[in-house]
Amino acid sequence: MKIFQLTAIAAAVLALPLEEGIAARQTPSCTSPKLRKNWAAATATEKQAYIDAVLCLPTLPSRLNVSTHDNLYDDFTYIHTQLSTPQRIHAEPVFLPWHRYFIQVYEDALTECGYTGAAMYWDWVADSGAPASAAVWDPVLGFGGNGSASSDNSPDKWRVVDGPFRDLRPTYWSTLDQPDPHYLSRDFFPAIPQAGFQEMLGWQYDQSVMDTITPLTTYLEFRIQLESRPHAVVHFAIGGSRGDMGPFTSPNDPMFFLHHTMVDKIWWQWQHDDFANRKLAYEGTRNDGLAASLDDLMPMLGLADDKTVRDYMDTEGGPLCYTY
């Protein structure tokens, strides 16, 4: 099977300041921005409401005209994978704004299931010292823990066996060419005791790593480092060799959205560190060889309308209305 080689995963595994909030800016288009919270800081009621809404998504009809699945939950995996083969949303200037839009589409979908809160994030920087013990893996008010690591080689070898998503059965794994229904899977990267490293590669996304990324002053440098280092490593740390967070089909795991909301928070913080100059900071060369433009369209292939990058550069302007 093809395994999703996230940008510079191999280098990131070997390679090596986030602040909790800035006062919300008030704009005519966004007078009451939603606050996106760290999962660990959310109330039990907020967590349960989020979990219930995610569990509702597989019961809603697909928005896509495809024969291989029929529900909204699989739509998100299908779109992400379709846009990754060939690559249009990773190792691209559009990586950050496209995923910002994708998270918003997901949050909007949760509202169809009665959710009234905002997207949430896993602060993997704060939890980097003991990632596998983070609150997000709680079996009751979290996403369940690691896969079962059974000795057989069945498709469900790494099935998540606890938590509210233990019976979740995504349709795809690694590719859209052939449906591969399976139970939600995780394969936490193991500890390396002889090197003194804890599980899940936490030393690759701790504060010292972020301190080498957040001071970068150009969008190009910042995006490349954020995408290829902590973003890629966290995917690999959760997904391992057979977990759902590894391949392009990574939205199979509801943790995908908490992870990418954290990535968005880091970008948001970087923008607000010099908002006058970074609100519209966007540059680079697209994979088709053309220069990136704020007027580039971000495709959603029928899951939602295509939008321009420009519309999603400010979380409190245009169609967005949230803060951290």
TrEMBL record:
Signal peptide: 1-15
Short name of one Pfam family: Tyrosinase
UniProt-listed SUPFAM superfamilies: Di-copper centre-containing domain
Signal is among the record's keywords: yes
Alphabetical list of PROSITE patterns matching this protein: TYROSINASE_2
Keywords: Copper, Metal-binding, Signal
GO molecular function annotations of the record: metal ion binding; oxidoreductase activity
InterPro entries linked to this entry: Di-copper_centre_dom_sf (IPR008922), Tyrosinase/Hemocyanin (IPR050316), Tyrosinase_Cu-bd (IPR002227)
Domain Tyrosinase copper-binding: 253-264
Entry-linked PANTHER family: TYROSINASE FAMILY MEMBER, TYROSINASE-LIKE PROTEIN TYR-1-RELATED
Protein name: Tyrosinase copper-binding domain-containing protein
